Give the backbone structure.
Amino acid sequence: MKLALTGTGQMGQAVATVAADSPHQVTTRFHSDRPFLETSPSTVSEVDLAIDFSLPRLAVPHLRRYCEWGLPVVMGTTGWYDALDEVERLVEQHKASVLYAPNFSIGVAVLSRAVDRATALMNALDDYDAFVHEMHHTQKADSPSGTAQMLAEQLVEGLDRKTHIDPETQHQRIDPETVHVSSTRTGTTFGEHTVGFDSPYDRIALRHRAKNRRGFAMGALRAAEWLHGRTGLFTLDDVLDDWLND
């Protein structure tokens, strides 16, 4: 495939490195000196698919243009999910191809499945309180991460005793119906997510720790291969479902 790469930060650079070792080719790049929103359709006329790791404030305008131009996209930018209904309408209106995920690590996708199964067991065990903690590097643009938000939402959906998420520092007793999501920003940490269940007697933890950005980039590229030729709005769960069924 011929790829357009939007965003040349750390993740964009990782995708370019992984793509260079693949059968695919990055033929055009968009960045702060060459904004995607200031280009014309001719710049992507020969591009098969875009991979976007840009900025949260640009995600929805970018998605709108991808849909209008009929350019399939793997969207790795987070911080825009409150506009998901609008994006769903755009995909349907233009018969577009969009695959998004808060995290393109295959390991995180497996962690998400494990959390679903764990909550099914823990729902009947009221002694266990659930939490999410995540760590990232100091350059990360959002907090908490989209992945932490996703994992916390799974806990709310799976545990009858939990009704909402609170990602803020607590200065008083926490509401027992809250899933507390805490974040640490330090150094060059690639990403670590922990889902825990704590009781007066013990603690159970499910954890994913990224070793480098290559795993995220490889996941995004494999997602692009899966998306090519498909139409609709997808997540990494759809890709994993397809692989597991095969």
